[in-house]
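Need a sequence for this fold. Nothing fancy.
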């Protein structure tokens, strides 16, 4: 028996192309890759540590107008502290004083710490501060409440 090899024209090959050929998969694969990249960008959120670091940067700043960005908008005092950044001056005086957190200990939604200060004798040895954390709609960590020296100062 003689084997006969029949060569088909390129047009005939295109007509009978496999339904999952490279040309048909390119666009769906491109769309899937773009969706993965875009969703990866949205997953960049603020951690608890980053939120507390942002709070400390803002509390150490003479202009505390951005401090509210670290806070949960669902907290009852949010509107007041956003409108009046000097609210914090009662607890954390501004003039030439810097503050630092140490001994942070996270337990669920609560972070216990010690806040220390330079140039303020009332902070000698550090004072207890507790942050209750929550997340905003974008899954960023935000401060829901603050208890300072066992007194709620923000909730």
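Here you go.
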């Amino acid at each position: 028996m003689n084997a006969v090899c029949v060569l088909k024209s390129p047009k005939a090959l295109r007509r009978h192309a496999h339904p999952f050929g490279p040309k048909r998969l390119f666009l769906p694969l491109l769309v899937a890759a773009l969706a993965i990249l875009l969703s990866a960008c949205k997953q960049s959120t603020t951690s608890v540590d980053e939120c507390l670091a942002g709070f400390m940067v803002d509390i150490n700043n003479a202009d505390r107008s951005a401090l509210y960005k670290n806070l949960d908008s669902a907290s009852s005092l949010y509107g007041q502290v956003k409108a009046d950044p000097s609210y914090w001056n009662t607890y954390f005086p501004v003039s030439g004083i810097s503050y630092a957190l140490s001994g942070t200990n996270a337990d669920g939604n609560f972070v216990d710490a010690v806040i220390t200060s330079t140039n303020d004798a009332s902070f000698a040895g550090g004072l207890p501060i507790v942050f209750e954390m929550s997340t905003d709609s974008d899954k960023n960590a935000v401060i829901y409440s603050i208890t300072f020296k066992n007194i709620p100062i923000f909730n």
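For context: The chain has a mean pLDDT of 83.
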